[in-house]
């Protein structure tokens, strides 16, 4: 298995979602009602996709604020003349656009009790949902004590040493929750800066905590103001250091540890570069993975093939998927045309056998009910899809 050779498409949603939000809602109304938020005439793009920890499902987030669970067919890799069709097993509607998701790390399709995920939205508590049915199990409030308003986490992850603990990043704050205490707020809050008016130092950072990642007990937290903080003991210990990301970008959207745990990959909006830092010396940039094609405010997903050789994989605005091999000195090792629109997300299967990509970008439909002109037809050629590729 290798990510440095052409993959084979084995499953796809096809053209099912190459339509507007309103058209999807009209077709699936009996299954799951659209929340009604946003522009109904916009393209129903896929914003992100992520694998369940057991590798049996893909959870996607779309423009219509509906989270769809796709259970992969058992004969996915059997020889076939055409890609298998992907249809959602379950759908969960959100009252607001989803800020971030986190699937329960001990999830197993054979045990429905473990099939759940966390969801964060604006002006609501964090919710724990079923992955296989449309059901809310629990909620966890994160409230500003001064204003009594809900804080909306922009990043979440479960802790590796305890699957029932999770971490949420909000504005200048990292909060720690216990999954087994439904209805309760965080048991610990880490303020990344003492007060809003405090002067920043080498151990403080200010801004929305938009990305979180843990490896070897070190919590890395990135902000939309382009700072990265490193914290000991999975975030509950001391501050190791804070540094500002080099170069230009529109704010950190992802942090990923290298396979060896020594390097931290920093992903930003409006940046064609993935910056790599040596965490032994906070702030020392050692490499730039170039050519990502991500000069857009839209989040473009990145993943690392931990189950393979640690290759770095990214989507791009040109429909291309780029791959950087380990020790590639910043040069792309391979790329291929995966979609006819922005590749908004890439996700490597936990076992490294297949990978998922999703696509789409915001486009308005100006097509009237009686219009059939060529220009309108061109505007309708969207690619909002989820694809599975054999590596």
From TrEMBL:
Looking up InterPro entries in the UniProt record yields: SWT21/TCAB1_mRNA_Telomere (IPR051150), WD40/YVTN_repeat-like_dom_sf (IPR015943), WD40_repeat_dom_sf (IPR036322), WD40_rpt (IPR001680)
Which Gene3D superfamilies does the annotation name?
YVTN repeat-like/Quinoprotein amine dehydrogenase
Which Pfam family is one of those matched by this entry? Answer: WD40
Q: Which residues cross the membrane?
A: none
Write down what this protein is called: (Perigord truffle) hypothetical protein
Native source species: Tuber melanosporum (strain Mel28)
